[in-house]
Amino acid sequence: MLYQLYELQHAMLTPLRFQAELTRTACQNPWNPLSYTQMGRTLGAGAELIERATRRFGRPEFGLDEIKIDGRAVEVIEKTIVEKPFCRLLNFHRRIRRNDPSVLIVAPMSGHYATLLRGTVKALLPHHNVYITDWEDARQVPKSDGRFNLDTYITYLREFMSLLGPQTHVIAVCQPTVPVLAAVSLMASENDPNQPLTMTLMGGPVDTRISKTEVTELAETRPLKWFEQAVVHEVPFYYPGAFRRVYPGFLQLGGFMSMNLDRHVGSHMKFYHHLVSGDGDSAEAHRKFYNEYLSVMDIPAEFYLQTVETVFQKQLLPRGLMKWRDPLTDALVDVRPQDIERTALLTIEGELDDISARGQTTAAHELCYALPQSKQFHLFQLECGHYGIFNGRRYREQIMPRIRHFIRQFDPGKDPIPKKDLEKTPDIAPERYDRDRHGIAAIRRWLRENRQESVRDVLDQ
């Protein structure tokens, strides 16, 4: 019923949205003398705020048509390699002859589209052949296409990595760190020849017992039945995925925004003042960010509920109890990270990450204890929040070069990086993982000494 009420509210606000759009267009038209007055800019700014607050933002485009390699422009063509009901495997083909490492970016299925990682892809493109998982909005998938849960997610990843072959490097951003680690573990247990060369896990909930955040506390203090009753709803009949049970994107967006409500309200107030003062560049930067941030997708209920139970409530992977259901035999297979011996591991965490706090991702090293220490690396990025791990200036200048160095270290037979690119972001080697400094015991000791149970406590101070 909540989904239907949300749709009804959107429909009822349509006349207001059209009126606001008409007012904004009139007041911001350069041929209208009123647009050059204080009153005209004020009316136009208010109208644009109303129009954007009542608009539904559609699926964004990656829009990566061109990149620069060694100082010259290179055309980029977006290609669909595999198309499955719930996901497309995309490749950003560069019109240039280069033997660069192939990288599979696994985007999160957590409410936003894969385009949220546009900055991640763009920074990697000059030096890598980039693939990405482009997850589908569940309300657009007919119910006849079947169910999608965490087991299906892992199956998709195994198929993609097998297709790309053993010379692939996989990068998981946030939520998919668990299914990626599980998929690589299963491939290692079977001695699959297509195991990736490296695995980079960025800001993900591998072990949520290490440190607490608002996300983990919500999952731990509510029974699974509560999530099923409170946040799972059926898609309305007029969508292709009619009657499919989903976790609606608008609920996830509301949860994200409520965590930093003051910042979002302040950002919109600044946007209003930029419009009134005529600061077009700042206003456009705001539009660009929120056009992406407010574009959300529905998540299949089976995947959402299984993830909540497996990752946040029972922590089955770090406890050695996680199992994967083989779609061919319907048998339950143990997920054993301790079987990983070939795939090098890099974990990345942000100091100010209030979604996957310190230690949650680092726990992957403790699970992969059979992996030689020479293949384990860790990066703890200071003054960096969750989104800063994979987007923005710190990612481009400090994190991405380390990922690039890590990948090249274990895939040395590739073309050298152009010198002009190295001048902008020099190769910086990631730090070798040290259990005494980075291990779970050291992290718990740091949290205890600082009387902090989570990164959120740091921000509160």
Topology:
Elements: H1 2-12, H2 14-27, H3 38-54, E1 66-69, E2 72-84, E3 87-94, E4 102-106, H4 118-124, E5 129-135, H5 150-164, E6 168-173, H6 177-189, E7 198-202, H7 214-221, H8 224-230, E8 233-234, E9 245-247, H9 249-259, H10 261-277, H11 280-293, E10 299-300, H12 301-313, E11 323-325, E12 332-334, E13 344-350, H13 363-367, E14 376-381, H14 393-409, H15 419-424, E15 431-432, H16 435-438, H17 440-449, H18 455-460
Parallel strand pairs: 4-5, 4-6, 6-7, 7-13, 13-14
Antiparallel strand pairs: 1-2, 2-3, 3-5, 8-9, 9-10, 11-12, 14-15
Helix pairs in contact: 2-3, 3-10, 5-6, 5-12, 10-11
What does this 3D model show about the protein?
The chain has 461 residues and is an alpha/beta fold. The chain has 2 domains: 2-56 and 249-293, no CATH class; 66-225 and 299-460, 3-Layer(aba) Sandwich (Rossmann fold). It contains 18 helices and 15 strands. Strands 1-2-3-5-4-6-7-13-14-15 form a 10-stranded mixed beta sheet, with helices on both faces. Strands 8-9-10 form a 3-stranded antiparallel beta sheet. A two-stranded antiparallel ribbon has the order 11-12.
Radius of gyration using CA atoms only = 23 Å
CATH fold title of the largest domain: Rossmann fold
Q: What top-tier CATH class of the largest domain fits best?
A: Alpha Beta
Unreliable stretches:
454-461
What percent of the residues sit in helical stretches (DSSP H or I)? 40-55%
Give the spatial strand order of the biggest sheet.
Answer: 1-2-3-5-4-6-7-13-14-15
Structural class based on helices, strands and sheet pairing: alpha/beta
Largest sheet: 10 strands, mixed
Give the name of the CATH architecture of the largest domain.
3-Layer(aba) Sandwich
The number of strands is: 15
The number of distinct helices, counting runs of at least 4 residues, comes to 18
CATH homologous superfamily identity of the largest domain: Alpha/Beta hydrolase fold, catalytic domain
Number of domains: 2
Mean pLDDT: 92
Q: What general outline do the C-alpha atoms trace?
A: globular
First-last Cα distance: 41 Å
The percentage of residues in β strands lies in: 15-25%
